[in-house]
Amino acid sequence: MLEKLKEEVYEANMSLPKLNLVTFTWGNVSGIDREQGLFVIKPSGVPYEKLKPEDLVVINLKGEVVEGDKNPSSDTPTHTYLYNHFPKIGGIVHTHSPWAVSFAAAKMDIPALNTTHADTFYTAVPAADALTKAEIEEDYEGNTGKTIVRTFKERNLDYEATPAALVSQHGPFAWGATPAKAVYNAKVLEVVAEEDFHTLELTHQNSELPQYLLDKHYYRKHGPNAYYGQR
Amino acid sequence: MLEKLKEEVYEANMSLPKLNLVTFTWGNVSGIDREQGLFVIKPSGVPYEKLKPEDLVVINLKGEVVEGDKNPSSDTPTHTYLYNHFPKIGGIVHTHSPWAVSFAAAKMDIPALNTTHADTFYTAVPAADALTKAEIEEDYEGNTGKTIVRTFKERNLDYEATPAALVSQHGPFAWGATPAKAVYNAKVLEVVAEEDFHTLELTHQNSELPQYLLDKHYYRKHGPNAYYGQR
Amino acid sequence: MLEKLKEEVYEANMSLPKLNLVTFTWGNVSGIDREQGLFVIKPSGVPYEKLKPEDLVVINLKGEVVEGDKNPSSDTPTHTYLYNHFPKIGGIVHTHSPWAVSFAAAKMDIPALNTTHADTFYTAVPAADALTKAEIEEDYEGNTGKTIVRTFKERNLDYEATPAALVSQHGPFAWGATPAKAVYNAKVLEVVAEEDFHTLELTHQNSELPQYLLDKHYYRKHGPNAYYGQR
Amino acid sequence: MLEKLKEEVYEANMSLPKLNLVTFTWGNVSGIDREQGLFVIKPSGVPYEKLKPEDLVVINLKGEVVEGDKNPSSDTPTHTYLYNHFPKIGGIVHTHSPWAVSFAAAKMDIPALNTTHADTFYTAVPAADALTKAEIEEDYEGNTGKTIVRTFKERNLDYEATPAALVSQHGPFAWGATPAKAVYNAKVLEVVAEEDFHTLELTHQNSELPQYLLDKHYYRKHGPNAYYGQR
């Protein structure tokens, strides 16, 4: 069942330790088959060095296990919520990568301070609103997805142009058209978080990119007039 | 004698350099057999690349060498004190991992600023009171254990729920149900120390987790209602 | 065509990941044959692990593709402009190395605070003036070269003695007599950016090298009286 | 000639890149045969991956080349001066390791803030006085040794108990009873520089070890009553 997608999600999961995005088992990638309305996700708490494609768990868009012997990632309800509300995404990644976590713990957006950021993210990457006590106790992981979606709506952000968010005091989620692109975006987020930290320490002031520089870098890599890379 | 425990303690010691927790010989792991009241510890000053399981030293709960050709770790009296006063722990680790040392040198607790912390530590990891001149000169390593235990008592902390402490101006000790779990806790401590440093630089203010978020993350991984991982 | 130069430029490109100067495909090296007025550059967006010497693209000094199946680096107009205005350079490197980017995003020069800097750069490495909205929209990559050259002229800098610049809010360009030397200079820039960051945090004040120490270190490695290395 | 010493000095030089203490060729180790009054040093500017034991240069205590086809390290006069004035040392290391350089550029001592420091250095590691313009122009490398020795004399420091110094705006020199011990001390210096940076950022105040804790840690590893390690 979904063998090709499982292979793709497996490879994306295995790229997390290679890109230094995870310690121990702290990260998970999923990928969706939109036609069947099913997604594939890493099992909970399995070390990367022991993970096999057949360990992955298949979930439907109600968040129910459809196939798999293992418990799915405890973050499955967050993935479910995001797939339901961001209909154009094909993959989701959650990590505890340390620079992004440092900003999340500070409840700060990762601002757009350089063109590395603008090449991938068209705006600051938002720190979603913290969950209330009731939201945490009622349905923590589901409401984690909810606060991300709500934050994008409140701030009028396009989830395709800004494919990541921080969950306050927790860590980053990133997404993309495929599981591999979601991982790519998670890595970019970690790199710019590190750079932004140092830039903020140097400047102690806001020095965000002007809109025309954001436009230039974002659109030379994305959309119909992109001219970066091979086509 | 205690061959299985020696193998376990050997593996735990060897994981320290793999997890980037030690420079040169600056770290040691022990593990205890509670039934026999004996623990096994790394010999003093032996490089990891030369360490063999048979080099490990067996110690009783009075801190006396029971078996072994080599001198035990100079921190053996600290391990002895902790095993005597924290009766439910099965392994202890001491390292000089640099981020935890940075906080220890500042005599600061490692505060609970993110959910990575809450997944493993239910409270801030305390910086134990500095030893007095008399305590240092009389029985330095034994009193190092004493100040950790005293700090847990004074602050009313549960050593199972907060399985680590900083010794002021020195470095971290971590423990757990097994030697491997103690090492795991030592690594988590190092990761969150790094993240907390950066968060504190960004915020310059206290932004500790609310109790309900600490509860959620700690108890989704620990205790009877845990739902993280495979069971 | 230009097989030897292609090999040299290929090797220089492949040294970028080895020296930890690039993430993903974010960097490019070119090298020029001054007699033929042609330079060789990395194709756009090709991963280093897949790059082959025959993928490199040959460009003339008008910036036109002379040979090659692939699109050249999107930064080709910047390289073209620099080769036209810095007639003694033989190679150019652009990276998004994180410490240099942190200074570029802060629009700050990388000051000459230690002798590691003075061994390679005779002055501070300048942050070139930011491009205006019109310059970005009209010819972004060409004008990126223009602002570097203009900054060197305005500040009366010698591009051979200070073989690098930061493009504000973007990142570093470095150059040298050969592609390999350009890469060397890019690595030195990254190392001193990291050191300068920490020195500035420690001192919170200007502590630039006195001119006589800059002279000593620069001229013991460069020019007719150099005595460093084998000759 | 001095084959055994050459092998020892070669191994010590090769350990510098393994311990992440050098970039490119920026470091050198020497070792002395006190009976013959000759020392062996790395040649200038030779990459570590090409270095062979027979490339090492033999120097007498006047600083003259006694054997060797290659130019000795440009820092040879500094080594010569130190061997002449610190009669009990057997090896010297110079690196541009980045954390020690960051303190050197700030003209700051590396203070004794934790027991990792006290295990190896009995006092703060001093930043030697900056050279004057005349000293730099007259005999730069020789006077670099002179300012280190003068600083130890002025501050009444014991060069065996504090086996390293920073040269202001330049970088660290470390020494020891053997070339290997000098390298060990250079690595400890780099580790504590990194830790001290972070501790100083956390505390923004002096928090040096009390003398009795320095005594305890220094003397449990050094001198007749040491009890660390195997004997």
Keywords:
Aldolase_II/adducin_N_sf (chains A, B, C, D), homotetramer, 231 residues, zinc (chains A, B, C, D), L-fuculose-1-phosphate Aldolase, Aldolase_II/adducin_N (chains A, B, C, D), EC 5.1.3.4 (chains A, B, C, D), 8 strands
What do you see in this structure?
Chains A, B, C, D: Pathway: Carbohydrate degradation; L-arabinose degradation via L-ribulose; D-xylulose 5-phosphate from L-arabinose (bacterial route): step 3/3. Chains A, B, C, D: InterPro entries: Aldolase_class_II_sugar_metab, Aldolase_II/adducin_N, Aldolase_II/adducin_N_sf. Chains A, B, C, D: It catalyses: L-ribulose 5-phosphate = D-xylulose 5-phosphate. By secondary structure, chain A is of the alpha+beta class. Chain A has a single domain, classed as L-fuculose-1-phosphate Aldolase (3-Layer(aba) Sandwich), CATH 3.40.225. In chain A, 42% of the residues lie in helices and 15% in strands. Chain A is built from seven helices and eight strands, in the order αββββαβααβαββαα. The first copy, chain A, has an eight-stranded mixed beta sheet with strand order 4-3-2-1-5-8-7-6, with helices on both faces. In chain A, a hairpin with a 4-residue loop joins β1 (27-33) and β2 (38-41). In chain A, α2 (76-85) runs parallel beside α5 and α3 crosses α6 (179-203). The longest helix of chain A is centred in the last third of the chain and has 25 residues, at 179-203. The first copy, chain A, is globular and about 50 Å long. The mean pLDDT of chain A is 95. Chain A binds chain B through residues 23-24, 26, 43-46, 70-71, 74, 96, 98-99, 101-108, 131, 133, 136-137, 140, 169-171, 197, 200-201, and chain B through 113-116, 184, 187-188, 191, 194-196, 198-199, 201-203, 207, 209-210, 212-213, 216, 220, 227-231.
